Amino acid sequence: MKAMALRVLQKGGTTALAGIHMSAIPEMECRLLYHERAIRSVANSTRQDVEDMLRGAAEIPIRTEVTAYRLEQANEALQDLKAARISGAAVLEISRA
User: Fold this and answer.
1) What is the value of pTM for the model shown?
2) Cα separations in angstroms, 69 against 9, 44, 73, 91
């Protein structure tokens, strides 16, 4: 997955690896790092780090695009993700009856 992220990364872009548990970085072609592409890791962050980041995001402001799907549309959501037809985040809505 990390190599796939680098393949679609624009020149000068950065891929951030952030997770509580991550698998080993797989072997990849060196050319994936050409054009000043970068890999950064974020092993953990503090509550204060997250508060600072959210404050900064509000000041920029960062706009988030969300595409909502009903739970029964989960397969359609996966197909749209696979085909890169979603910009931003995809959310499955689960209604509580």
Assistant:
1) 0.41
2) 27, 31, 6, 6
Q: Is residue 68 within a helix (H) or strand (E), and if so which, with residue range?
A: strand 66-70
Alpha helices, H only, the chain = 2-8, 47-59, 74-82
pLDDT per position as a tens digit, 42-80: 767 777 887 888 888 889 887 888 999 999 999 999 999
Reduce the DSSP state of residue 43 to 3 states and report it. Answer: coil
Scan for tokens 């680098």, then name that residue: 6
Longest alpha-carbon distance in the chain: 52
Give the contacts of 5 (CB within 8 A, at least 6 positions apart): 15
Strand 66-70 relative to strand 38-42, pairing: unpaired
Structural domain boundaries in the chain:
1-63, 64-97
State mean pLDDT over 84-92: 89
